[in-house]
Amino acid sequence: MSLKGKTAIVTGSNSGIGLGIAREMARAGADVVLNSFTDRNEDHALAAEISAEFGVSARYVAADMSDGAQCRQLIETAGGCDILVNNAGIQHVAPIDAFPVEKWDAIIAINMNSAFHTTAAALPHMRQRGWGRVVNIASAHGLTASPFKAAYVAAKHGVVGMTKTVALETAEEPITCNAICPGYVLTPLVEAQIPDTMEKYNMGREEVIKKVMLERQPSREFATVEQLGGTVNFLCSDAAAQITGTTLSVDGGWTAL
C-alpha cells in the first residue's frame, strides 16, 4: 500500500489520532501536511521529526478549523492535495437543556463544518491531479448515540451523511470519499485519564479499562492510532478504489450491538 508521490493533509494532527494517522501515511511514503490551530516551535519540530524518520516531505500549517476561511486556506497553503483526512475534533459533555451554546457552535464548526470547507477546497486539486481520496474520521457516534453528547453525535452523524453525498458527486471520477468510525482509541489524552479513573472507582488498571472505560466496546480493547492509520492507508490504496460512500467501523464490535 505505497503512497509514495501522494500529498496527504491531515487536520488536527499535532497529537493523538491525527498524528498517528499522519505517521502511518508517512511510513507508507506519503508527503504529509500536519495541522492544528497552534503555531509553536514544537508543532514544526513534529513535522521535521516525521520527515527525518520516514524520508518524506512533512510540514506543519497552522489553521483554526473553527474558521471556514482558514480551513480553505489550509488546502491552498499546502499547495496540493491528493489525500484529505478530516480528523479535527473536540468534545463537550452536558445535558442538552444545559448544553452551552458556545460549546455547541464550536463542536459543530470544528467537527463537521471544517470537513465541508476543506473538502470543497480540496476537490479541485484532486480533479486536476486525476486522483483523490477523502477520508473523514467520524466516530461510532456517527452511527449510534450516547446521552449528554448532543453536539458531538449530531456533528458526527452529519459527517457520515456528507461523506455519502461527496461520494455520489465524485462517483464517476477516480476520487473516493469514506468515513472511518472509531470506538475508543488509546491516545495520550485517554492514557492520562486512566489513573484518575482508577482512583475514582478504586480499581486496578486492567479492571477499570475493561469494566468502565470500554464498557460499550465488546472487544474490551482500545483501538490504536496505528490501526486507524493502517485503515486510512487501505482506503487510499488501489484495493479500495471501488469503496466509496461508506463507513468502516473500527470499534471492537460496538455498533454490532
UniProtKB/TrEMBL annotation:
PANTHER family: 3-OXOACYL-(ACYL-CARRIER-PROTEIN) REDUCTASE, 3-OXOACYL-[ACYL-CARRIER-PROTEIN] REDUCTASE FABG
Name of the top EC class for this enzyme: oxidoreductase
UniProt cross-references to Pfam families, sorted A to Z: adh_short
Sequence similarity: Belongs to the short-chain dehydrogenases/reductases (SDR) family.
GO MF assignments: 3-hydroxybutyrate dehydrogenase activity
Keyword set includes Kinase: no
One Gene Ontology term from the biological process aspect of the record: monocarboxylic acid metabolic process
Gene3D superfamilies for this protein: NAD(P)-binding Rossmann-like Domain
Keywords tagged on the record: Oxidoreductase
Name of the protein in its database record: D-beta-hydroxybutyrate dehydrogenase
EC code(s) of this entry: 1.1.1.30
